[in-house]
Amino acid sequence: MKQEITLVATLPSTPRGARAARALTVAELAERRLPFEDAAQVVAELAANAVNAVTHGRVRGRDFRLALHLTQGPTLRIEVTDTRREFAPPAPCQAPDAEAESGRGLVLVAALAVRWGTDLGPAPLKTVWAEMDMASPISPDRGFRDPVDQYPVPHDA
User: HEC profile for the chain?
Assistant: First the structure.
């Protein structure tokens, strides 16, 4: 099976970098006329986790890498790689307590993806990946409009 690399980008481990990862995903999939709503959500969650790992690890200046691979089927493989392998997500993913303020991101990824996991690369690399079936039936109006663009938001200075 031939693999087509759709997008590879290195982004800063900041909230702005996480937003850029989501925007790049939306643009790439929309250009290919593929539904992007669920994929954008998965990218947002994985990128946020990469940013949080760096922020909580007190490591500045480390970037994360977003890679989107589209294969026959079509299957979209989303990979987010960072340099904090000690912050690998637990598997299997369990829903947090109702009062918890965090911990729902990977539960959402597990619900939207066909499968997901973590690969440890050469130290200190960690890649969290998710695969999504892009041929799943969807309603005709779902996934081709970015709801974020409907609401004006203040931009960082």
Answer: CCEEEEEEEEEECCHHHHHHHHHHHHHHHHHCCCCCHHHHHHHHHHHHHHHHHHHHCCCCCCEEEEEEEEECCCEEEEEEEECCHHHCCCCCCCCCCCCCCCCCHHHHHHHHCCEEEEEECCCCCEEEEEEEECCCCCCCCCCCCCHHHHCCCCCCC
Q: What is the CA radius of gyration of the chain?
A: 15
C-beta of residue 62 within 8 angstroms of C-beta of residue 54:
yes
pTM of the model: 0.77
Q: Could you tell me which residues come within 8 angstroms of residue 111 by beta carbon, excluding any fewer than 6 positions away?
A: none
CB 20 within 8 A of CB 11: yes
Residue with tokens 């993913």: 93
Low-confidence stretches of the chain (pLDDT beneath 50): 57-58, 139-141, 143, 147, 150-153, 155, 157
The 10 Å CB-count burial string (b at 16+, else e) for 40-71 is bbbbbbbbbbbbbbbeeeeeeeebbbbbbbbb
